[in-house]
Amino acid sequence: MTNISATTEFAPTVTAQRAEGDGHRRLLRERWAKLPYALGLTPFAAYVLLFLAIPTVVAVGTGFFDDSGEFTWNNLTGLAEPTILRAFGGSLVLSGVTALVGAVSGAILCFALIGSRPGGVIRSLVNSACSVLAQFGGVMLAFAFIATVGAQGLITVTLRQNFSINLYEHGAWLYTITGLMLPYLYFQIPLMVITFLPALDGLKPQWFEANATLGGGRWTYWLRLGGPILMPSFLGGLLLLFANAFSSFATAAALVGQANPIVALQIRQAMVSETVLGRANLAGAMALGMLVVMIIVMLGYSVLTSRTARWQR
Amino acid sequence: MRVRVGSVPRFGPGPVARTVIWIIFSIFFLVPILSMVEFTIRTAKAGSYSLDRWVSVAAGTSARQERLYDGLNNSIVLAIVTILLILVLLLPTMVVVELNFPRLRRVLEAMCLLPLMIPAIVMVVGLAPVYSSVSRIFGSGSWTLAFAYGITALPYAYRAIQSSLNSIDTVVLSETARSLGAGWWSVFMRVLVPNLRRGILAAIGLTAAVVFGEFTIASLLSRINLQTSILLVSQANPFAAVIFALLALALAFLLLFLVDRLLSGRRSGSSKG
Asked: pLDDT grade, residue A11 (50/70/90)?
């Protein structure tokens, strides 16, 4: 672009070509300059490919093959077995109920925290307690509940001796789906608190004042302002809780002995059992089933939030 | 400021409702922990208690205790390797995407949050064959499990670091530094990392919490970590297992609380200054 007026006749086309060439070259140069950065992305991409993409594909893929490596639909039809269908039903009920109850209770707990200052001691206490308890699933949690409401647990014994109430009148409920709900809530509620509390902190006091100026009360505020604003975060928390309970394995594994009332335990059974042939591939089919459930839940979530998200942007 | 103090508590619950909520939740969360404590001090005679089991754990003479130490050791090594993986692989990638490929931000987010949606038990089905090749390359040391844990910790670490990234102006910071002659490496290490300190610390804490609580993958790949060793020991010596569980819980809580206090102290200090 230096000597535009050198040859007047050709000038327009030449400059145009030159500018175009320059533009291309600049674009190319920019692309080349970005190349090292693009290369910088490859280690992470390779890592995710190796340890997330490949395992998932392999897990789902094994569901379509039999022991000799032949393609088959048999594993998928095996999903229709009554025990496996019951396990899927159990998992759905357990995850759905604990997600809903956990999300509502967690939100109530956050609500009680509104007055406290972010960064204060109470917040630190709640934050760290919730972070620990949200990861508290598994063996230790199973112990805690056996020690509390197990056959010889503190509450069970106290109720039996002092109030002659027998918690086990209707059988060993702690080791069933209903019984699993209690320990599950023990990690679901804290998880909801850590995910939902930041959203609640995002509510500006000015909005409440604006609402009051316009003559609105507390109910108007929560119904017309706070509720709708918090809805996407609440639904997001609900989804996270569902996924968390649905994929949870350790607590049930430690509490429930031989019966396998949820899918995760059925998968373990299929993976570990070497007596029944062809079971390992059934694990793949069940893995596919779990993923399908997760995808459906995700789609439902995006449909629910797309409406609220539209006016928030 | 006066307006704020006056109005904030008003749209929250009243004092009575607040107290009721607190009492109910305190009971729900504290009773199981107290029951665990009560369980460890029980004696053969109903109604009488002793601290013998705690003493023998403290003295290191409790049955099967060395197995718990094996599990604890493995989990510590796993936590360190997983944190390194997150810091070496995830953190620079997030910075590069933020600075050079803003269009890939959504892709990266989706990639990092995906493990939340893929149950660990599903991953295990596919990880078993992957690990048979991993152990051919890296041997079968227990630390290799960190590759899988890096994935399970990914969503938590990502969200912690991303919220820090969102709170600073990365592009302006790095361009200022570059115009002063800093190379990529010093922009990263001397400008961005110190500014992302909070997010990075939170990511480290959460990653450690995930690793110490992990059971599914270790159990099904027959590896020994803290959780699987606690389950193993609980069959022979449930009291030592519960004592260890309580200690782990208390330790994790204290650690997170201290980090949180440290960070919030800094935060309020810097926002005033």
From this structure: very low
Please state the rounded mean pLDDT for residues B257-271.
64
Per-residue pLDDT of A160-175, as tens digits, reads: 777 777 777 666 677 7
ipTM of the complex: 0.79
Domain contains A69 = no
User: How many Å lie between the alpha carbon of B59 and the closest alpha carbon of chain A?
Assistant: 22
Q: Out of B22, B205, B249, whose CB is closest to A136?
A: B249
Instruction: Decide if pLDDT at A22 tops 80.
Output: no
Positive or negative, the CA dihedral B163, B188, B151, A292 is: positive
* Record: contact B126-A57, CB cut-off 8 A: yes
Handedness of CA B230, B128, B126, B202 (dihedral sign): positive
Containing structural domain, residue A45: 1-62
- B43 and B178 in a common domain: no
Number of domains, chain B: 2
Average pLDDT over residues B157-181: 86
B16 & B125 share domain: no
Overall number of domains in chain A = 2
d(CA A192, CA A125): 16
Candidate from A54, A132, A218 with C-beta closest to B130: A54
Determine, yes or no, domain membership for A70.
Answer: no
Do B12 and A112 count as a contact with CB atoms less than 8 A apart? yes
Contact between A139 and B33 using a beta-carbon 8 Å cutoff = no
Query: For B155-160, what is the mean pLDDT?
Result: 88
Report the chain B residue with the minimal C-alpha distance to residue A298: B117
Cβ distance A106 to A196 under 8 Å?
yes
One domain for residues A57 and A83: no
Buried b (16+ CB within 10 A) or exposed e, B129-139: ebbeebeeeee
Higher pLDDT, A10 or B206: B206
Domain containing B41 equals 2-58
Query: What one-letter code names the amino acid at B11?
Result: F
